[in-house]
Structure prediction request, 109 residues.
Amino acid sequence: MSVNLSLQSVVVAAKDQVSCDLGGEVAILSIRNGVYYGLDPVGAQIWNLLQKPLRVAEIREAVVQEYEVEPERCGRDLIALLEKLLVEGLIEVKDGESANSSETLPGPT
Prediction:
């Protein structure tokens, strides 16, 4: 799966998973591969946002509003998390947009 996410990509939680809140953290079970995944409180907030299709830029904005983090760093960290979730089949790119956008985030520095 070779999808490069950008700020304009629309992402959403995949259908073949179940998740639950564990005191501010989230546990996710992939029905596809039977593996459990855990997310810390920041990841849990992102996971909650992923329950409906949103642009990556909208998710980044919500995290920046909630936490003291620079938008550029938040964007890099968010893209890294979303790419991991995508590889594991826990999220989907809804509109198929990829890194052809001029708002593509650079990789880690």
Residues 61 and 71 are 8 Å apart (CA to CA). The beta strands are 10-13, 17-22, 25-30, 36-39, 54-55, 91-93. The first strand starts at residue 10 and ends at 13.
